[in-house]
Amino acid sequence: MAEEHVNDFSIKVYVDAKKNRVVYAECGGDFVDVLLSFLTTPLGTIVSLARSQSLPTEMGCLRNLYTTVENMDVQNFHSRACKTMLLEPRNSAENHCMNLKLKVDDTLGIKYCCSSDKCTFLNYPLVSHYSDEFCGCGKSMNRKVTLSQESKNVGGSFVKEDIGFIITDDLQVLRVSSNVCFSLYSKLGIMDRRTLDVRSLNVGANEIVNLLICSFVSKSTLSETFLKCKPAPEFINPILFPERSIDQSQRFEDLKINQENSVTLKLMISKSKKKVCYAEADMDFVNLLFNFLTVPLGHVVKKIQNSSFNGCVNLLYKSVQVLDEHVFKDKNSEKMVLRSSLALGCWYRNDLLGIEKSVDVSYYYALKNRFPKIYSAPPCSSSGVYTFSTMNSTSPTDGGFLRGHKMFIVTDKLVIAPISSELCFSILEEMKVHFTDIEEKIVKVNRELVSQLISMKSDKKQSYSPLISFVMPLALQALRLLVTSFVSESALTNVFV
Questions:
Q1: Which of 113, 219, 370, 495 is a Cys-bridge partner for 170, taking CB atoms 3.0 to 4.6 Å apart?
Q2: How does strand 371-375 pair with strand 362-368?
Q3: Alpha helices, DSSP H, located in 107-158
């Protein structure tokens, strides 16, 4: 983990000692920048961070998905880089996050060039976000270079540094004002401010990762992270920001699905248990599941922000939505948080998630004081500046992360392996299901059904056919499934049965 015990924050926390809970924290823009960076972080990175600290998280199926990629033979992928981009997906807001006071993502700013100097500077001026991509000359791009700190944006990452903020226990971000404080005290029944303990706390990398992971499963994130306690439910903070009314039709406004494509899935369901035992799927469906790891958290929350959450990451997103635009450094900074795009270099042709592709950027390689450096903008006072283009690791075919025409078994817990009769019976035996109890259902997504989806209402209780219930999660509700998988070990059953 990057920068452990370096550049720690000092924040002021107001604690209700009787109820042993954090009422709110008061901080500057640098700490808020870190909270907002949560929304730009790819889900694969979040799983990796949780594992690196051995946190007792409830990340359910997503954790299993990550482990599947980790254990899968690299020969199943188009390249080693395709596997790496799932395990270490790059943040599309990397240039902004480079300026964070405290960074917990070790991959920020790491690039790779061809090992041949002649090739790099004369024939193929390319830079890759991932190691072991193949250069145009056929050699591996494994020369590691780090984005120069001089490339960082000046004056914070997303918000202005000189603005004060209040962070509630459930991660609502609000600008400091008398009205906000009065409203918070009133709604929590705090009549005398002097009853609160004011504590100055140092916040390091461990606490930042704990805040991030805790936000998926708790609405008292500050209390659980800083006081190591869980307040009673009746003491959860009220909503302080003005609720924004969202027309359900807006949920489809930025849908960018290639409707010519289709995905087929064969479900094996236990009739007696009404539970999916496993699915037989081709590479298109597995590519879709693997792609979950490259999606930024903010996109997940944006798609299903009106749904119920066990945690409070949705409140973080919604409170940022209604922040005064003047607290942000600029329009682009606000967009990076609220409209996060796919991880760098991870787009492929048959993407059904409807998420924006990251914009390709150029990098600049130069000698400064006789040392080679890489920049995100043309450097000054340097000699021999070379412009480098970025590579998309799936660009040779745009066919996804996997190669070949294999079929896979996908379990209810999103553990994936190449299909075999032994594996099928092993799963049934583990679940104590006899093969005569199995009901087979084939579901498919195509252009016609995606069009039907767009005209549907998003009432979760509405009754749909098994076919339509599959269209919902793949075309739009896949991200709802993804968030649910943080706390569920039965992903396929929850969606399709």
A1: 219
A2: antiparallel
A3: 117-118
User: pLDDT value at position 113?
Assistant: 82
- Through-space distance between the first and last CA atoms of the chain, rounded to whole angstroms: 40
Going 48 to 493 to 456 to 244, the CA torsion angle's sign is negative
**Phi/psi at 68 (nearest 5 deg)?**
-60, -45
Beta bridge partners of 159: 328
The alpha carbons of the chain give a radius of gyration, in whole angstroms, of: 24
Hey, is 205 helix, strand or coil? helix
- Where would I find the H helices in 278-343? 283-291, 297-303, 313-321, 331-338
Residue 349 φ/ψ, nearest 5 degrees = -60, -45
pLDDT in tens, 104-146: 998 888 888 887 777 766 777 778 888 888 887 888 888 888 8
Tokens of 336: 């990076």
CA pair distance 15, 213, nearest whole angstrom: 22
Helix (H) or strand (E) holding 202: strand 196-203
Residue 90: how many CB atoms within 10 A of its CB? 25
Give, for 65, the enclosing helix (H) or strand (E): helix 60-71
Total-model pTM: 0.84
All residues at 6 or more sequence positions from 160 whose CB lies less than 8 Å from its CB, including other chains:
29, 327, 328, 329
Matching residue, tokens 């998988």: 485
Residues facing residue 77 across a β-bridge: 402
Q: CA nearest 405: which of 395, 414, 418? A: 418
Contact assessment for residue 29 and residue 179, using Cβ atoms and an 8 Å cutoff: no
Is residue 148 within 8 Å of residue 26, measured between CB atoms? no
